[in-house]
Amino acid sequence: MQPIQLAWIDYTILLAYVAFVIGIGWMLSRYMKTSADFLTSARSIPTWVTGLAFISANLGALELVGMAASGAKYGISTAHFYWVGAIPAMIFLAVFMMPFYYGSKARSVPEYLKMRFDERVRALNSIAFAVMTIFASGISMNALAKLLNQLLGWNYNAALFICSGVVLLYVLKGGLTSAIYTEVLQFFMIVLGFAPVVYLGLKDVGGWHAMNSSLQTVATNPAALYLKEAGVTYAPDAWMSAWKPVLAGPANNPMGVDWFAMIFGLGFVLSFGYWCTNFLVVQRAMAAKNMTAARNTPLVAAVPKMFFPFLVIVPGMIAAALCTLPDKNYRIPPPILSAAAYASALDAVKAASPSDSAAAVQAVGAALGKPVAADKIASLVAANAATPLSDEQIRKGLYNSIAENDYDSVILSLVKKYCPAGLLGLALTALLASFMSGMAGNVTAFNTVFTYDLYQAYFAKGKSDHHYFLAGKVVTVVGIALSILAAYFASMYNNCMDIIQLVFGFVNAPLFATFLLGMFWKRTTATGAFLGLFGGIGSSALFHAMTLAQGNAPGVKGGYLSVVHVFPSEMAQNFWLASFAFTACFVLTLVISLTTARTKSDAELKGLVYSLTPKIKSDALPFFLQPGVVGVVLLIACVILNVLFW
Amino acid sequence: MGLDIRWPIGLMFTLIGALLTVFGALNRSGSLSLDININLIWGVILLAFGVLMLAGAVRGGKKPPTA
């Protein structure tokens, strides 16, 4: 793809947005008087605001880019991350878990763990969380700066520093409140910025039904789009039906997963683990003004979240469908190659003889350094030999013959295809907004955990509140500086980042078992929780070391001890790993708790454990607004969506 | 906190919406996508959304944060 050129109007929209988010930080700065104002918003924010921030903090640029990528690769099944994963977990958080988080007056998730168990569990969780948020924010910053560099021609360093500078400014001024308020603005920016792209894309493929029939062509021959190896074929509905292909078994759906891994691994372990225990999102609900508002936060969030697949996954499906329509002149972008690679491939095409197409294919492939489609190169060479083509035509032919897709460029390739100047600025601003909301989410969660759970708990006990207020500000600056370092680290050592993300997986997968037992079984002991968590982490590492996904070599991707089992896809391996780690942590915690003595009495656990906490009476609320009732209604809506796309 | 977030959201989308609408109306040829003037159409939608948010803020009875 040629770099996208921005016009003055695009820059104006971008600048207006930046001015508004910084302005919000400025407006809020005068309300920042105590560390609680800065780090926890002093529990003062209305529900609809925390609800939208709840989704926005999770909707980083990586999610936006990644969901469109998966939409092209796997089709509507990607929506399981929402309809099986996020929504039920969010409802569970609202109805069952929020009373303990909010009611316990804990300022963070690690602090809750300290109240429920002891310092060891808190230290383990807060250190892991702090390291994780920094790297998560670094990885996403690196991805964004790279994208802006490749597609807009912006300088990588400038993109990195300007974007994080803006986030620093408004978070430092207005703390968590500022992050939450701007997340709401960013939410609308993302929705209103991408909606026209989806609309135009759908119109272009001929509407929903026409897209579905194009996707049948994709499913029966995915190799034509370089989606799968030659010879792989699926039932015609594999891209547009969410459940049938999954129920038919791993060989019959492009994700390569089975129904158990999907429901238990993704739906239960991974999603509940993320949405119910990750402080990044839970913090938004904890900032709500009262218990009802806190419980309603994830419920308010669930409504738009349910329909997000149409905004973020459908673009990927549109892209795949477009590829089957020759007159649309579109393909999923190949990996970005240097001009020099194209130039030498161009020479190879000109020098090739049409009678020896095998040699031509080899020469062009070597020049590009990528696998190429033999038939396309052969016809390109033949066409050029018949009547010499222009360099531009040959370059276009080469672009179309690279047999590899860069799925992460899908969303921007559609933006580029459909957005004239003006709308283009809006869509790019939406992308930047998603990046900033994700980063601000990470930074505000990091500074709270670091200040309260590490600094105050272990380094500087009993200082004045002003001391922690300042510490929170310093930690914010340090957090952003560390994220920038992590971004450079990510850009230099791609492999190390894979390993780090892997380690996060090991740490996160078992965590939900600890919470589940801790909140709903008063007999769970601190030692049981601590050792169970360690055992869970260890067993997930072991599981990974002994399994592999089809097509991967033993190493970073697993199987480095020995290969006991081979999964049909990496996704299946991840889902099963999570299921295994959860079960190991659950059983270990249970057994160790039964063999160790309780250290906390029933009275101490009041407000922290389900059976010891008086049920909340929200009599003031009408029947249909009770969190339990709203949760059931949302769950029914979610089931209906699953059935509609069965 | 003393800031009603509907003010900045409303102001920003009113501004960007107005900008896109005017740009789309004046620069028809440069605003076409699939033969529709998408800047004009979407500008109007953003403008309407912005005004709606401002109306909500006014009805909410909060004064602008600067006042």
Précis, in short:
Chain A is mainly α. Helices cover 71% and strands 1% of the residues of chain A.
Explained architecture:
The complex is a heterodimer of chains A (646) and B (67). By secondary structure, chain A is mostly helical. Among the domains of chain A are: 8-243 and 279-324 and 413-492, Sodium/glucose cotransporter; 335-404, no CATH class. Chain A contains 26 helices and two strands. Chain A has helices at residues 8-29, 35-40, 47-58, 61-74, 80-103, 109-116, 119-152, 156-205, 208-220, 244-247, 259-277, 279-286, 291-312, 314-323, 339-351, 357-368, 374-386, 391-401, 410-418, 423-459, 465-492, 494-508, 511-520, 526-546, 570-595, 627-644; strands spanning 547-549, 565-567. Chain A has a two-stranded parallel ribbon with strand order 1-2. In chain A, α1 (8-29) packs across α8 (156-205) and α20 packs across α21 (465-492). Chain A is globular and about 90 Å long. By secondary structure, chain B is mostly helical. Chain B has one domain. Chain B has helices at 6-26, 38-59, and strands at residues 32-33, 36-37. In chain B, strands 1-2 form a two-stranded antiparallel sheet. In chain B, a hairpin with a 2-residue loop joins β1 (32-33) and β2. In chain B, α1 runs antiparallel to α2 (38-59). The longest helix of chain B has 22 residues, at 38-59. The radius of gyration of chain B is 15 Å and the shape is elongated. The chains are: A mainly alpha (646), B mainly alpha (67). Chain A binds chain B through residues 9, 12-13, 16-17, 20, 23-24, 27-28, 31, 41, 44-45, 49, 177, 181, 184-185, 188, 192, 196, 200, 203-204, 418-423, 426, and chain B through 1-3, 5, 8-9, 11-13, 15-16, 19-20, 23-24, 27, 30-34, 38-39, 42-43, 45-46, 49, 65.
